[in-house]
C-alpha cells in the first residue's frame, strides 16, 4: 500500500478537522417489532428503519495535515410505519406499496439535504409532503390495474432525525411519540372522525378512546381521489430521548401510561419493543401491532 494512502487513512491528530459531522456523533439504539395479533388473518402493518449517509474520505493529498479532513460524514435516521386499510390482502398491499414508493422516491432524489437550517428544514418537509402525494398516485395506479385493490388505503407516519433535529410527516392514525424525562408526548394528531368531533367540541377528549368512530379515518393515502391532509412537524431532540412510532394495534390495547412505564425502565430498544407488543397481545391483540423505537445519545458536540 502506498505510504501516502496510509497517512491519509490515519486518525487525525489533535487540532485537525473532525473526522465526522455533528450528526454522526449521535448514537441511536434502534429496534422494531410487528405481530399479526390474535384476531386478524394477515398483517397489514409494515415498517422500515433506515440510515442515510453522506460521506467523504480523503485518499490521497499533498495538502498539509489538517487542511482537509481524513474523513467526514453526516447521518440521517429514518423510521416509517404504515398501517393498511381495506381488508383481505388490499391493506397489506397498500402499506407495503406506500413504503416501497417512499424509499424509491428518496433514492431517486439527486440532492439529499444532510445539513439543516430553517429554509432547508422547510424544503425537506415540503419534499416529504410532495412524496406523499406521489405515493397516493402510485396507489391509485395500482388499484386501477387490479380491481380487487380499489378500496385499499394506508396510514403513513415518517420520522427523520439529523443530529438533534427531528422532522415528522404524517397521514392517518399511526402515531409518533416522544418520551422525555418520564413524560410521553404525542407528536402526531389522529386523523379520525372521533378526533374531529372532539376538535369541534361535540365530544370530550376523554371520550375519543371509546368512541365508535375512532377508527374511521378522515385522511389516508387511498387508492381513490379522496381527501388527504399531510401533517408535518419539527422537534428538537435531547440526550436520552426515546422516539416511538406505532400502529393503533398498540394504542388500542395499551394505555399511554403503560407505554410510558415501559419506556421509563431503561431497557434496550429491543427489550422495550418486545414488552410493548406483549402488552398489546395480553390486552387482546385485536389488531396488528407494530412498534418502532429509537433511543438517542446526543453528546454536547452534536448539539451545536
Tell me what the structure shows.
The chain has one domain (3-302): 4-Layer Sandwich (Phosphatase 2c, domain 1), CATH 3.60.40. A hairpin with a 2-residue loop joins strand 5 and strand 6 (165-171). The longest helix has 28 residues, at 118-145. The protein has helices at 3-9, 90-108, 118-145, 193-199, 248-251, 256-263, 269-282, and strands at residues 27-35, 45-57, 71-85, 153-154, 156-162, 165-171, 175-180, 183-186, 221-222, 231-236, 242-246, 289-297. Strands 2, 3, 4, 5, 6, 9 and 10 form a seven-stranded antiparallel beta sheet that branches. It has 304 residues and is an alpha+beta fold. It is globular and about 70 Å long.
What are the key terms here?
about 300 residues; Phosphatase 2c, domain 1; 7-stranded antiparallel beta sheet; 5-stranded antiparallel beta sheet; 12 strands; about 30% strand; globular
Brief characterization of the structure:
This protein is an alpha+beta fold and 304 residues long.
Chart the SSEs and their pairings.
Elements: H1 3-9, E1 27-35, E2 45-57, E3 71-85, H2 90-108, H3 118-145, E4 153-154, E5 156-162, E6 165-171, E7 175-180, E8 183-186, H4 193-199, E9 221-222, E10 231-236, E11 242-246, H5 248-251, H6 256-263, H7 269-282, E12 289-297
Helix pairs in contact: 2-3
Amino acid at each position: 500500500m502506498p505510504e501516502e494512502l496510509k497517512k491519509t487513512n490515519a486518525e487525525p491528530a489533535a487540532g485537525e478537522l473532525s473526522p465526522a459531522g455533528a450528526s454522526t456523533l449521535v448514537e441511536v439504539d434502534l429496534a422494531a417489532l410487528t405481530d399479526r395479533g390474535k384476531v386478524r388473518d394477515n398483517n397489514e402493518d409494515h415498517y422500515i428503519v433506515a440510515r442515510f449517509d453522506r460521506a467523504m474520505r480523503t485518499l490521497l493529498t499533498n495538502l498539509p495535515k489538517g487542511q482537509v479532513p481524513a474523513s467526514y460524514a453526516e447521518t440521517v435516521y429514518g423510521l416509517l410505519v404504515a398501517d393498511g386499510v381495506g381488508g383481505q390482502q388490499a391493506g397489506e398491499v397498500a402499506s407495503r406499496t406506500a413504503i416501497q414508493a417512499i424509499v424509491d422516491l428518496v433514492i431517486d432524489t439527486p440532492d439529499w439535504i444532510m445539513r439543516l437550517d430553517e429554509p432547508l428544514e422547510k424544503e425537506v418537509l415540503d419534499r416529504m409532503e410532495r412524496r406523499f402525494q406521489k405515493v397516493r398516485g402510485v396507489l391509485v395506479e395500482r388499484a386501477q390495474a387490479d380491481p380487487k385493490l380499489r378500496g385499499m388505503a394506508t396510514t403513513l407516519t415518517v420520522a427523520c432525525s439529523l443530529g438533534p433535529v427531528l422532522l415528522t410527516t404524517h397521514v392517518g392514525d399511526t402515531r409518533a411519540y416522544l418520551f422525555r424525562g418520564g413524560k410521553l408526548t404525542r407528536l402526531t394528531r389522529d386523523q379520525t372522525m372521533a378526533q374531529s368531533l372532539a376538535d369541534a367540541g361535540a365530544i370530550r377528549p376523554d371520550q375519543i378512546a371509546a368512541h365508535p368512530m375512532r377508527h374511521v379515518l378522515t385522511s389516508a393515502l387511498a387508492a381513490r381521489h379522496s381527501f388527504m391532509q399531510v401533517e408535518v412537524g419539527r422537534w428538537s431532540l435531547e440526550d436520552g430521548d426515546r422516539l416511538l412510532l406505532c400502529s393503533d394495534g398498540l394504542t388500542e390495547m395499551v394505555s399511554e401510561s403503560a407505554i410510558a412505564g415501559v419506556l421509563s425502565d431503561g431497557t434496550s430498544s429491543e427489550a422495550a419493543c418486545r414488552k410493548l407488543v406483549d402488552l398489546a397481545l395480553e390486552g387482546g391483540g385485536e389488531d396488528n401491532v407494530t412498534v418502532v423505537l429509537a433511543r438517542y445519545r446526543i453528546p454536547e458536540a452534536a448539539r451545536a
